[in-house]
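Notebook entry, structure prediction.
Reason for the run: the old model in the group folder had no record of what sequence produced it. Starting over properly, with the input documented here first.
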Amino acid sequence: MRQAAIAVKSIFRTACLRHSGICLMFDKPIVMLDFETTGLSPASGDRITEVAALRIENGAIVDRFVSLVNCHVRVPFYITQLTGITQRMVDTAPCVSQVIPELLRFIGRDALSAHNASFDEKFLLAESAAFGLQPQHERLICSLKLARRLFPGLPSYKLSTLSSSLGIRFNGSAHRAEADAEVSAQVLIHIGEHLVRTCGVAQIEPQLLERLNRISAARVPDFLGKAFRH
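New structure, fully documented this time:
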């Protein structure tokens, strides 16, 4: 079966149950992305070791793409300690030349989001460029910046601490791509629900989330008042 073959390659897509709670309608799909990497910067030669991309529609995760990635590089010991991703896991994973084109097809032109989005996007751009490819996502939304602007005063906006502050359960292991992407997606859904409740609207546009990323927390109330003026 196709599904079994994909599972062997550690690449899979699954449908998930609709998020419980109030009905939230994101205007368009948003793909939540998370990379695990060998370091902090592709400019310094760091590469990806794992990727998870989760598509959010109507307030629910409806599709996902997850894979370990073999970039034919050494995994530093401290990265294995942090993530649990070993050299053997990477060496036996699908090759990056297979994963990146599949990932870009999965994302398509949907808006892209990540927790600390500039980090994940720079790796996406670098890995894509290595194969002469260009991501086609139309917008970039940072859940970390949104949380800082909409929920000021929290003790920390680190994903594990933020999710705890918002009452979101962290399933799986931190610093693994799918678990981090799952929690980041729930943070973004929580942000959407917050906007629906406080602004009295039925739909949240990715464009609005992107614009919120660019303004200071002090300007948020005035911005939302104008954006959702009835």
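Summary: Strands lie at 25-26, 30-37, 48-57, 60-68, 111-114, 140-142, 203-204.
The old model has been moved to the deprecated folder.
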